UniProtKB/TrEMBL annotation:
This is YdhG-like domain-containing protein. It comes from the Bacteria. It comes from Shinella fusca. InterPro entries: YdhG-like. Residues 22-118 form the YdhG-like domain.
């Protein structure tokens, strides 16, 4: 990553390169993440994965042929009353949402999940400081 290749620009580039429903979906998810937490920080990790952080990793945005996957780093510790998590359900830490072409996104439920992930990160950070 060069000085001009900020994480935000790299994510913009990924969205443009996809040039299909996956790019549109990633852009929409990104906008919802920013609406849920305007203080979230965008990162670019692991050779090309968009990552959103606030006091730790909140979620990632991976793109595959048939899905855009939002992986929540501590998703197993989050309540999911709307049942958004539909992937990586067996692990003890992560949970994911696979968004397929044409799928509806419950925007309010997703923003609530993002806010809950940020709150969890903050509480864990506060405990570590004690």
């Amino acid at each position: 990553m060069t000085e001009t290749d900020t994480p935000a620009r790299l994510i913009d580039r990924r969205i443009a390169e996809l040039n299909d429903w996956r790019g549109e979906t990633l852009a929409r998810l990104r906008a919802l993440i920013k609406k849920a937490d305007p203080d979230i920080v965008e990162e670019w990790k692991w050779r090309g994965v968009p990552v959103w952080e606030h006091d730790g990793i909140v979620c990632t945005g991976e793109t595959y042929k048939a899905a855009v996957k939002m992986t929540f780093a501590k998703g197993a510790s989050l309540a999911d009353p709307a049942g958004l998590f539909n992937s990586s359900l067996d692990g003890n830490t992560r949970r994911a949402i696979d968004v397929h072409e044409g799928a509806e996104i419950d925007e309010e439920a997703l923003k609530a999940l993002i806010r809950a992930a940020v709150a969890l990160n903050r509480s864990m950070r506060a405990r570590k400081k004690k």
